Amino acid sequence: MEHLLHNILLLLVLSVAAVAAFRSFNLPPILGYLLVGALTGQYALGWLNDANEGFVLMGEVGVVFLLFAIGLEFSVKQFIAMRRTILGLGGMQVLLSTLSGLAIFVYFDMSWQGALIAAGALAMSSTAIVVKQLTDQAEMRAKHGQMALAILLFQDIAVVPFLVIIPVLAGDMASAQSATQITLDVLAAMALFATMMVVGHYTLRPLFHYIARAQSTELFNITVLLVALTAAWITESLGLSLALGAFLAGMLLSETEYKHQIESEIRPFRDILMGIFFITVGAKLNVAVLPELWQPILLLVLGLLVGKSLLVAFLARYFSADDGTALRTGLVLAQGGEFGFALMALALTNGLLGAKESQIVLATIIISMALAPLIIRYNDAITKRLLGKSYLRQSHNDTYEVSSAIQELDGHVLICGYRRMGQNLGRLLDQQGVPHAALDLDPLIVQAAWEAGDKVYFADAARPEILLAAGLARARMVIITMTDMEVAKRITESVRNTNADIPILVRIREDSYMEPLLALGATQVLPEMLEATVMIAENMLQQLGMSPDELLPLIEGIRSDGYKSLRSYYHGDKIKPTRIVGETFLHTFVLQPTDSANGKLISELDLERHGFSIKSLRRGDIRGDNPDTTMRLQAGDKLVLEGKADDFRKAENVLRVGGKISKISVA
């Protein structure tokens, strides 16, 4: 036990360092876990090995929670809406990729059982990397982003049958009953799936209603774990995969109204166990043999990147995507994925692959995942370079369709984002007889709103050519209602670069994004939290008897000042470690007789140069906001400092010793 605890502590130290390092370079944390596993595995430092049952068990539980998390994210409604793309495009991609890989591996003398699993592992792409990178690039709602999401969704489902058949393939496949056994197991899995779905549909919701009434987070979490692990145990006791039960449990819980609460509560378990799982997978990578296997690894990496991207592009083109969208979809998915590790780990455990074969496949997946963020980041530039004029021609066709539909509008309001707020604003403009048009990248919303008679078009508002086609030169105003701030910033920049004079109103949720958006050219940025505060304050003061003549200047003053009086507050001990850059805080400082600032004018301290200011000053029972810089400070003054959290140590240093090096820390 002591040896196990010692290894766990060392793993935690290395994991923290590796994940922090990879995040600083904007690389997926998964690669950090894999690196830790490779360094501490049986082929390196030897802290992790197959004889260590504790880590093996944690790796298996990691697979369980990996599938459980996917089950929670799986939506039946989303599946129905995108069924043609998911089943057709996703199904053909997994099938053809697996068959292609199977043929190649068998040609190089790999057993067909191991070749099937290795090919299936390489057919999967990294959901974590693709979704994160596309979201950061504001491309998740673009056509290629939606097609990639559909394929990833099918891959997430397709991994379950692979996990189910691995134990069967590990048996005596030479017997004549093997095909019958596989068929029976598949039928049993389908029957179990249907039974658990029916039972769960009628039992889980009442169960969680009862649990929720107890108002106990601990009881809620324990119940979630009980349901997930019980489902995994049931499938495992029937000779199927633990992961299959976890996936079904996730799907069942996703159908309840407690889905989002479950996601937030289970995330720590999921992230930690997934990290442990990836460490155990990385531990199976023998770095020492890579130099002698570099040729097959290099060929397989090139084959995966090029072959998989071309295959996905061909299939996407067959499913009515234009050339540019098809190629971008292929580039986005040209890598191995985390589910490939799950398949490889289970295949190794069941003896379907040899050490040399597994090292080649594992190294291929890891290298492709390391290259994936760069390929995804430059997918547009690569497509332009490869397709040239045809890609530009397709872009012009997209803009022509929008331009033809909006050519009669003049003096209109252009709404970017047509979800709840965009639709409400559109209805208000209709009531006032103001012409308007909207752009959005959600095909379901666009279709439903278009059929209802709304002037909304499926187009990317971040593209300058789309904005011009939407009549930006003739528009009266642009309103951006996107909740994704990266998308909002791209649209703001595109609008301002295309039209220097048009008013741009941007809705945001966090006031920390005000300065970046204003710097990009937004005319006015409306933060939801601060606007709600203004509305409540207005109603409060009305109820207290303030007249409209007194109230209007006060409210307009708050807005015209950029909500400055409302943006700073005392955060207490609930400061999030991942604070948004630019967020301001308040901190109270009591001036002592021995402090350097005692007896000095505020102007003499030059506080702004150090990144903070005095928001208010209390002397005795008298408090004044924004004190005059000619005011002389004295001992006992209570200063309310405003600035970034990281600047308060510097602030106290300036006030106490005049900015000299000091060991004084923030109280």
From TrEMBL:
Pfam families: Na_H_Exchanger, TrkA_C, TrkA_N. It is a multi-pass membrane protein. The chain crosses the membrane at residues 6-23, 54-74, 86-108, 114-135, 147-170, 182-204, 272-291, 297-319, 331-353, 359-376. Residues 410-527 form the RCK N-terminal domain. Residues 573-657 form the RCK C-terminal domain. Keywords: Antiport, Ion transport, Membrane, Potassium, Potassium transport, Transmembrane, Transmembrane helix, Transport. Its main location: membrane. InterPro entries: Cation/H_exchanger_TM, Na+/solute_symporter_sf, NAD(P)-bd_dom_sf, RCK_C, RCK_C_sf, RCK_N. It is found in: Membrane. It comes from the Bacteria. PANTHER family: K(+) EFFLUX ANTIPORTER 3, CHLOROPLASTIC. This is Cation:proton antiporter. It comes from Candidatus Thiothrix anitrata.
